[in-house]
Design a protein that fits this description.
8 helices, alpha+beta, 4 strands
Length: 238
């Protein structure tokens, strides 16, 4: 945890509060219904391999919610009744030395307590996603959900991100966005940043490659990325 704390202190010391990677607004529901016991699909194979680093994945909520505004399963994040979100936490993923990564390390899967769910809904506004991230990824790097999400949300809140409204109104490439993010986060090289866009070129996710000390590192060779001059668009949710 010393590495994570150092990253957090570094980020907070050099950037103003409006650049925090947080929800624009977040209003928690008064009550949360317990989820059923976790169910794993056929591809949920337990895989325990040495951890060589981590990926912090931040999803751009306006793009995710496009067309999902009336989806009851995504009401918390997308209906706007509970807030409006910018970048949200997708997950903190342990990575292997190659493209083979650890997953589903706990047997049987354990549910995330509602108290932990509530503490993290403004960062990750989906009960099902919280359960899935703990089951698939968190169980391979922490003893319990509370510790996993404490680390993940601290890292999420430490990252500084640019004015996406401004960037959405100008010609933009993947390389330009990486450089904008790197500039706001001293110690984070552009090579530590991977972007995910859909087939139409709209930004879906920012992924940060971290070492075992949770500090930014150059993304491994197996992380495939488009060319830096690949055009990129940002949906504002309007």
């Amino acid at each position: 945890m010393r590495g994570a704390a150092a990253l957090i202190v570094l980020g907070i010391a050099v950037a103003p509060a409006p650049l925090l990677a947080q929800a624009y607004q977040c209003r928690l529901p008064e009550r949360l219904s317990p989820l059923p016991a976790p169910q794993r699909g056929r591809d949920a194979v337990k895989r325990v391999v040495p951890v060589a680093g981590y990926t912090l994945a931040l999803s751009w909520s306006p793009e995710f919610c496009r067309g999902r505004e009336d989806d009851t399963g995504q009401a918390l994040q997308c209906s706007r009744r509970f807030g409006e979100f910018g970048f949200v936490l997708h997950g903190l993923w342990p990575e292997g030395r190659t493209a083979v990564y650890p997953q589903y390390c706990a047997t049987p899967p354990s549910p995330v307590p509602l108290s932990v769910v509530r503490q993290n809904l403004c960062a990750m506004p989906s009960q099902r996603l919280i359960q899935h991230q703990w089951d698939k990824h968190g169980s391979c790097m922490a003893r319990d959900p509370a510790r996993y999400f404490q680390t993940a949300t601290r890292l999420y809140r430490s990252v500084r991100l640019p004015d996406m409204e401004r960037l959405s109104r100008r010609p933009l490439t993947q390389g330009m966005l990486k450089r904008e993010i790197a500039k706001l986060n001293p110690g984070m090289p552009a090579t530590a940043i991977a972007l995910k866009a859909n087939t139409r070129g709209w930004l879906q996710e920012v992924r940060l490659c971290l070492g075992l000390d949770f500090r930014p590192r150059a993304c491994p060779a197996h992380v495939r990325q488009p060319r830096g001059d690949t055009m990129l668009k940002i949906w504002r949710g309007l």
